[in-house]
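Figure S7 source data.
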Amino acid sequence: MSARILLLGGTTEALRLARQLGPETVYSLAGLGRVPDDLACQVRVGGFGGAEGLAAFIADEGIELLLDLTHPYAAQISHNAARAAELAGVPCWALRRSGWQPGADDDWREVDGWDELTCALAPFERPFFTSGREPLAHLHEIPEHQHWTVRCLQAEPAPPRAEIIGARGPFALDEERALFARIRCDVLVSKNSGSASTEPKLQVARELGLPVLLLRRPSLPVVDREFAEIEALWEVLQQRL
Ligand code: NAP
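Tokens for the predicted NAP complex:
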């Protein structure tokens, strides 16, 4: 019989893995993005109610292995996963994707949080935010000399001096080049997700000589096994299935 797995998702890698797994696996999503309806495994949507709620779910459902394949900036759920696995007495394995590394021609600057980011953005006029929904909560604070372009999962109406683009990766290099040309951005804002599917924007920034402001990665808990690549995790996982 196959091991009963709880797979915490929300990333491209998690969906790839979910496609390989059968009905004994529960694939869990927060519910912010698209929920696939063509998987053989069970799909569960919504939070568990903290680490204790997650531990209770693990016990109630007879889960034997917890897989944390959430986004590197989704720190809360990763901390909950590590704690819940401990409470429930099951192993937790995680995909800990490496961050992108700058090349010799890159002008990358790391910032810690929103306040530091807005200070670093002050000299620029046309920032392009690709760091999630956070800028949407600050649209009323756009400085007089700036125009913001914000790309996030869902578009919504934008105030003057802003454009909100709804789009989800992967993003192709040619399309990113065309977008940068159209919006005439002078600085790129990003998380350092390390994902190949969103990396082309960094190539375009490099080609145009644009600075990149990267939000610093949050610290994540140490778990029983950590994998830098989904292929390595899959190889070890197959021995347990
Ligand atoms: P977060 O701050 O770490 O988590 C907030 C809460 O959302 C958690 O405490 C948990 O609620 C619930 N949650 C998160 N992931 C879940 C999952 N896979 N299954 C069930 N509940 C989950 O997470 P976030 O940054 O809001 O991200 C939410 C989801 O989007 C994550 O699954 C992540 O993989 C994905 N995502 C995040 C980013 C990002 O930049 N943060 C980017 C791309 C995708 P309870 O405490 O109630 O259990």
